[in-house]
Amino acid sequence: MDDSLFERWLYESESDFEYPNGAYFLDYPYASGEKEIYVAHVLHAEGYMQRGPHTIDFVGTGKYYQATFRLRTSETFTSSNPAALLLVRNIDTGEILANMEVPINTLRNDYRDYKLMFRSPASGRLSYEVYYLDDPALPDLYSDKVTVEEIAEPDPKIYQAETEHRFSDNGTIVEDSYATEGIGHSTGFAVQATAVTDDGKVITFTNSQEVHAAGNYEVIFLARRSSGATDGSYIALLEVWDEVEGFKGYIEVRDSDLGDTGYRVFSVNFNKSSSGRIFYKVYFYGSPTVNFLLDRIELNVV
Q1: How far is CA 167 from CA 161, 193, 195, 208, in A?
Q2: What class, spelled out in words, does domain 3-151 have in CATH?
Q3: pTM greater than the 0.90 cutoff
């Protein structure tokens, strides 16, 4: 489809939103309107950095859209903790249409694009929200704009592991030259379960808000290991859950099933008999010698 036929809307952070936690305004020549907003750990508490604009621009169409949040920080920081939560919300019903976490170490001092895909609700006003988490490992966070544009229905739907929910912030976010690049960096990011340190922990338990119709699905996990000795032991358990129907399927992965120079595909097929959300869970059994890395999760209709 010709992308020029798709609708696109631009909302400037400094003028089109409300600022419940008192974000400051700053002139910045590289920002879209040469202005941006920011919050700082020493000045602001946890809360909504921006929220709004409460529009009906994309309501009632039944189409898919992508909201791109343009964010930066003052320099590079190493923590894997989340800096902020990004949300697309129907403020009239309270429904969260899409959400993601922004790990601190994916931010840079130039802007990076964080993308949320959502489907138009039947009615209600929409809000594109940045919820600042006030982690002391991140001194400041800057927001330039949110761009919303119509997209073709994604097939498959792709969920980058680094922006999905990490259970109790287990594991770490690492740059990985084999991983998919999704935020504007020269290399991709992955969620890493570290040998010994993360043994026996749930690394990923997604909280996607998208509602999927009844039907047959295939979930693909793309995973690899670090270099090191393997002995065929089970290293990870990959699970699929449905909010209505519960546990839907799993696959156990041995360390010898994984490569150390590229990601391999592990799939779970299942049937949904009713509409509802789908969740993905990754449990790290553990390893004395190698780390487990998750690049992304894909959902296919089959």
Answers
A1: 12, 12, 17, 13
A2: mainly beta
A3: yes
